[in-house]
Amino acid sequence: MIVRTACCACLSFWLMLAPACATETPARSPAEIMDILMWNREPVGGPFELIDHTGHTRTERDSRGHLMLVYFGFTYCPDVCPTDLQAIGLALDKLGRDGDGVQPLFVTVDPERDTPERLAEYVPMFHPRLIGLTGSTEAIRKAADAYKVYYAKVPARQDASDYTVDHTAFIYLMDRDGNYLGFFPPGTSAERMVEIIHPRLAEPAR
Ligand code: NI
What we know:
- The strands form two sheets. Strands 3-2-6-5-4-9-10 form a seven-stranded mixed beta sheet. It has a three-stranded mixed beta sheet with strand order 1-8-7, with no helix packed on it.
- It has five helices and ten strands.
- The longest helix is centred in the middle third of the chain and has 16 residues, at 80-95.
- It starts with 9 loop residues before the first strand and ends with a helix.
- The protein has helices spanning 30-38, 80-95, 116-122, 137-146, 190-202, and strands spanning 10-11, 49-52, 57-59, 67-73, 102-108, 131-134, 151-155, 163-168, 171-174, 180-184.
- 27% of the residues lie in helices and 23% in strands.
- The protein has one domain (8-201): Glutaredoxin, CATH 3.40.30.
- By secondary structure, the protein is α/β, with parallel strands linked by helices.
- Helix 2 (80-95) crosses helix 5 (190-202).
- Nickel (II) ion binds next to helix 2.
């Protein structure tokens, strides 16, 4: 069984029970993923090759020289994704010109529905520099595994022909070389993100 609030498909930070009704079983449960992240048991991040919301191929190398904020979610997510993406957009605004040193990325865990066209309508609602990324199911699974993201398609409660996607919703902060610095849990405020990111931006680029 899975515990969640009535309207939200996102797995919250503290809810670790694997869904019994998943139509596709990921290799690791949310609890295992949480454990890896909390105790830094495995590396986080790595190479990816995905398609951005303008239809161009994009890899992690395209963001070298920028801090990266990486968030996995999906555009039909009713609650947690939009809230966290708003916080990311607001944090970038609060950083002002310094925010140009941060590249925000939104990677879909629902590549079937989140085409580049769909992402192109979605990402500008949160920040003009937010880049939406999609790709083949294999490419998305590989990127999610690298970032220790749990996601699984589950039938919608009201209509079994429809589906939603349960997923962990951490916001990953990567340094200018693409190395993992840490994560913000879902629900982190823009102010808190600025507190953490601002000193990192002040460090000289190597
Ligand atoms: Ni979500």
